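**Folding the chain**
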Amino acid sequence: MNIISLLADRPMKGLNGKGEDSHPIFVKETINQEEYCLIAVCDGMGGKGSKQVTMGSWGGGETNTHAHFASKKLHDILIETFAEAKRTKANPIDFFKNYLRYNIKKGFESLPSDSSNTSSLRGTMTAEFPTTLCAFVFNVNNIAENKIFWAGDSRLYAIFEKQIVPITQDHVDNPSIYPVVSRPLTRNIQKGEYAYEEKTFNPSDFNYGALLGFFVTTDGLIDGYQSPIELNLELLKALTTALTGDGGWAGSKYSTNFAQALLNQQDVTWSDDVSVSLVLLEVEGFKNKLQTLYGNYGRITSPLYVAKTKHKDLETELSRSIAKTQKYEQEIAKYEAELASLRK
């Protein structure tokens, strides 16, 4: 089966404009006459990992936060683990299951343990090199042969013909805010813990029509929108924008078009880094099916966008009324001062 890879990332935070997300990952290789693929994202946890450290040769002597280096290190470990599976002619799904935790432990223990105490956080609120993870390894010609490895609030979504569905559940600390809680210690890849959850994604468990693709994303994309349905609409809008380009899917042009359409929207205020790695499956009629799904989401969300427009108009009118009121209050204060002066 042919697949289409689309990547998008937007660094927002960190020192010198270098964000806490690593670059999104897409790797596809033929191993033992089977095509396997890895898509993944990692997001360094800026609160817990806000302490600064200076790296050696691996980090090029750079000084930055633990969060920044954690996601970059995990990025490198994921790519190297996939490459190691190819070198040894091993099934990468089994190889990740058997060796990823060991490779993370080995890689993170090579990072320096000393750091300057530059963070205002103390005690259990800090961590050495904390980062989230969401990695999906699969057989291109047999999607049911796969494994998901994830920790924290980076997610895997499946794009079906009739709906976009979240496949992973966030690991979080506060059950009163987030109803889904699974062993809080597994919520990040952290020095000394190396904990994550893994499971298999079975497309046949979902009755939403043909599977059209899937994507992994950090929380920056999710937090950019007010609701999941709005996120789904804008993601599909970006996909259809890329689909209508000239020249077919060859090259990286469509990844660029996808990223621009998804991340350069005027009415979205991005407050965090964003990383997305998306794969489309070239099943029969997939372009028309995506466009139909986009139209369905558009009809559902149309009242929402009408309400948002009205709300924005009301906010503008309120701002004007407040400005007028403030101007009148200033004039009244001026007249009262003049009146008081005359009375003297």
